[in-house]
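Can't paste images in this forum, so I'm doing it all in text. The chain is below; anyone willing to post the predicted structure tokens underneath?
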Amino acid sequence: MKPDLVPSGEQSAAGLLEDWPPYDPVFDPIDRVFLPRADIATETLVAGLIELGWEVDDVTAYRTVRASPPPAETREAIKGGGFDAVLFTSSSTVRNLVGIAGKPHNVTVIACIGPATAKTAEEHGLRVDVMAPEPSVHKLAEALADFGLRRRAAAREAGDPVSRPSERRPGARRRRAT
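Text version of the structure:
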């Protein structure tokens, strides 16, 4: 499907409302908006559409539930710095990971898809190293790759060994890049 309207600025409910036209009974034969959304979505979009004069059918289309905890070895790798990076694609992924597995180790690179996700990560005590310039998984992956290239170049310039974040944790085996 091709969307008729996407936010031109901030990719959020508030951004969508900035571009959403007010209801006009002369030009709009339909005055209702069907809004299927998550159970944890804010009321921003519903309230904004009503304020613009639209009638809103607000329906909970899906529920966000916490996943089962990962196996013990995965939890230990998350908390112990066994992963080089963690990519968060929503605020709920931050809350859920921290809730089921604990905070990633401080050597782990934290990458977030956008400002709201980064804010949630920081509220959970995480340092955000990378944020996508646009909220897409593709842009997030590109931003992480660019971050890695800059970090590698800085290490080489400083004469430091180039290593993965997971190799910087205490007791980790060190390797030198070629």
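The helical segments are 13-19, 44-51, 72-80, 91-101, 115-123, 137-158. The first strand starts at residue 32 and ends at 38.
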